[in-house]
Recover the amino acids of this structure.
C-alpha cells in the first residue's frame, strides 16, 4: 500500500481546526507540527501526548508522525503508568501542556508559539505500516496490554467511519467532542476523522452543558457532537436550549432508546452510536431509533468460536475476541446480547474486575481483596464498582489513597468494605450473592 | 459581584444534595466544610462534579462553566461550593 498523506485537506488555507473560536489553516497546523518535531529529543522514538487541548494533541500527533515516531496512549496517566511505560519503551518522553505535571519521564512543554507558515507547507505522506501508536488496555492480571495501531489501518477505519456516519466526502465538517483525545473513541472520531476526511477538529473539550451548547452553536454547519450517554443525559436534563447539529455520535456504553429519541428531537438530526473497543477500534454503527441491530464496518468479519465472538479483517490489526455476547444476524448485521461479567464500565471508561482487583492487592498493607460489580444497581446508575478488602490496621481512606496512585479515580470502589477475611468459598471464589449481601448490609449500617 | 458567604443552613442543604445525588456513604453533617471534594477528601471525580453541577444548577438557577480556572476553586470544598451558590443563585 502506498504512503498516505497526513492530512486530506486540499488547499493550504483549508481549515483543519477551531481553537478559541478562531480557525486554523492547514498551513498553520503543519508549520506548528514541523516546529514541534524539531524540538523533540533526538533518538527518543516514543512519545506520550499529555495535552488536554485537542489541537495541541493533534499537533503533537502530526509532529510524531512526520518524524517517524510512535505515540503511547495509556488509558490514564499516573506514577504507576509512567514506570510501566518506561519499562515498555525506555526512550519514552512526554509532551505536555500542563506546567504542573510531575513525572520521572523526560518532559517537553508544548510550544504555543508557532513559526509563520511557509506559503505552502508540505504534507508528508506516512507509510501505511508505520506504527502510529501503542494503546493500552488493562488486561486481567494487572499489567497493561499493548495494542499496535498502524497508519494504513487507522486511515481505513476513519474513512469508513465517515461513510458509515453518512457524511459526504466533499463537504468539510466540524467535530466537537466531549470525550478526551487519548482514548480510542476520541482519538479516532474527534482527531483522526477530521484530519483524514478534510474536516475540522475543535481544541476545546466542553464539560458543563452551557459550554457544550455554546461551542456547538459557534461552529459552521455541518457540525457533529461526539459524546457519551453520560454527557448526553447530563446535557439534556439541564434543560439548556440546544443548537441544531448534523449528527450526534455516542459511544462507550449502550444508549437507551428514550434518551436517543430526546436527543434526536433536541438536535434535529440523527443520533448514531458507534460500537468498538480499544483492541479492535470501531467496528459498527447503528441509529439507535432504528432498532437493536448494528451494521458492521466494511470488510470486517465476525465469527463465533471458543465461547467468544471474534472480530477480524478490514482495519482490525489482529483477530480479537470481543467482550460482549453477540448474536450474528448476517454478514454485516449483529445484536449485542449482554456482556461478559468481568467488564467494568464507569460512565464510558472501561476496566476489568481482574485488573482492578490486582491493583487493590498491590496496595501495601492489603492482604486480600477483590472488586465486584454490584447486582443491585438502579437502571440509570453509572456503574461504579465496589470492593472488599482485608487490610489489618488500615482505614478505608488509607486503602483508597493507595489505590488512587494506581488506578483511574473513576474506578475507586463505592463502597470499599473492610473485613477480617474475605468470604471465599472452597474453590477460592467469591460467590456473587455473598458480595451482594455484604454490600446491602454495609449500606443498611451506613448512616 | 461581591461574594456572599453561605449560611450554615445553605451549606447543609448543599451537602444534602451532594449526598443524595451521588448516593454517598456519609451523611451531610459528616462532610467537613473545608476538606477537598476532589481526590483525597470526599473522593469526588469529574463524573460526580457534572452530576452535582446538574442538581445544584437546577435547584438554584445558575450555570457553570469550566473554561476559566474558577471551576477548581468552586469545587475545592463544600464551603467554597456553598459560597458560590449563595453568590450566584437566582432562585
Amino acid at each position: 500500500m502506498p504512503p498516505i498523506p497526513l492530512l486530506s485537506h486540499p488547499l493550504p488555507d483549508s481549515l483543519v481546526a477551531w481553537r478559541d473560536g478562531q480557525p486554523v489553516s492547514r498551513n498553520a497546523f503543519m508549520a506548528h507540527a514541523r516546529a514541534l518535531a524539531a524540538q523533540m529529543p533526538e533518538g527518543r522514538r516514543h512519545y506520550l501526548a499529555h495535552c488536554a487541548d485537542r489541537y495541541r494533541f493533534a499537533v503533537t500527533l502530526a509532529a510524531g508522525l512526520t518524524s517517524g515516531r510512535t505515540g503511547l496512549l495509556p488509558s490514564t496517566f499516573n506514577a504507576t503508568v509512567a514506570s510501566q511505560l518506561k519499562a515498555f519503551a525506555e526512550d519514552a518522553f512526554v509532551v505536555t501542556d500542563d506546567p504542573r505535571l510531575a513525572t520521572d519521564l523526560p518532559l517537553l512543554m508544548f510550544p504555543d508559539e508557532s513559526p509563520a507558515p511557509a506559503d505552502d507547507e508540505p504534507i508528508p505522506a506516512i507509510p501505511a505500516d508505520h506504527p502510529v501508536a501503542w494503546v493500552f488496555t488493562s488486561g486481567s492480571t494487572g499489567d497493561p496490554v499493548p495494542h499496535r495501531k498502524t497508519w494504513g489501518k487507522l486511515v481505513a477505519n476513519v474513512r469508513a467511519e465517515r461513510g458509515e456516519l453518512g457524511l459526504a466526502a466533499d463537504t468539510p465538517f466540524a467535530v466537537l467532542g466531549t470525550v478526551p483525545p487519548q482514548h480510542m473513541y476520541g482519538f479516532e472520531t474527534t482527531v483522526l476523522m477530521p484530519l483524514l476526511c478534510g474536516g475540522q477538529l475543535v481544541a476545546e473539550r466542553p464539560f458543563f452543558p452551557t459550554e457544550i451548547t455554546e461551542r456547538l452553536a459557534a461552529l459552521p454547519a455541518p457540525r457533529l457532537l461526539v459524546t457519551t450517554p453520560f454527557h448526553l443525559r447530563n446535557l439534556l436534563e439541564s434543560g439548556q436550549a440546544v443548537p441544531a447539529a448534523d449528527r450526534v455520535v455516542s459511544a462507550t456504553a449502550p444508549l437507551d432508546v428514550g434518551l436517543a429519541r430526546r436527543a434526536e428531537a433536541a438536535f434535529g438530526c440523527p443520533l448514531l452510536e458507534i460500537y468498538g473497543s480499544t483492541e479492535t477500534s470501531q467496528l459498527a454503527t447503528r441509529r439507535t431509533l432504528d432498532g437493536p441491530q448494528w451494521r458492521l464496518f466494511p470488510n470486517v468479519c465476525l465469527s463465533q468460536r471458543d465461547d467468544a465472538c471474534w472480530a477480524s479483517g478490514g482495519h482490525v490489526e489482529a483477530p480479537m475476541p470481543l467482550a460482549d455476547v453477540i448474536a450474528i444476524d448476517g454478514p454485516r448485521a449483529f445484536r449485542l446480547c449482554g456482556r461478559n461479567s468481568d467488564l467494568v464500565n464507569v460512565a464510558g471508561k472501561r476496566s476489568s474486575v481482574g485488573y482492578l482487583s490486582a491493583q487493590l492487592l498491590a496496595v501495601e498493607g492489603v492482604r486480600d481483596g477483590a472488586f465486584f460489580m454490584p447486582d443491585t444497581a438502579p437502571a440509570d446508575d453509572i456503574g461504579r464498582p465496589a470492593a472488599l478488602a482485608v487490610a489489618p490496621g488500615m482505614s478505608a481512606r488509607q486503602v483508597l489513597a493507595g489505590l488512587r496512585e494506581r488506578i483511574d479515580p473513576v474506578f475507586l470502589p463505592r463502597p470499599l468494605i473492610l473485613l477480617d477475611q474475605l468470604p471465599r468459598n472452597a474453590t477460592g471464589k467469591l460467590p456473587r450473592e455473598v458480595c451482594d449481601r455484604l454490600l446491602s448490609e454495609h449500606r443498611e449500617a451506613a448512616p | 459581584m461581591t461574594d456572599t458567604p453561605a449560611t450554615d443552613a445553605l451549606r447543609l442543604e448543599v451537602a444534602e444534595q451532594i449526598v443524595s445525588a451521588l448516593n454517598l456513604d456519609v451523611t451531610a453533617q459528616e462532610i467537613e466544610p473545608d476538606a477537598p471534594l476532589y481526590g483525597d477528601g470526599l473522593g469526588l471525580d469529574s463524573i460526580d462534579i457534572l452530576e452535582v453541577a446538574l442538581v445544584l444548577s437546577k435547584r438554584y438557577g445558575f450555570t457553570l462553566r469550566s473554561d476559566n480556572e474558577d471551576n477548581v476553586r468552586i469545587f475545592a470544598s463544600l464551603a467554597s461550593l456553598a459560597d458560590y451558590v449563595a453568590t450566584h443563585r437566582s432562585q
About this structure: The two ends of chain A are 64 Å apart (CA to CA).
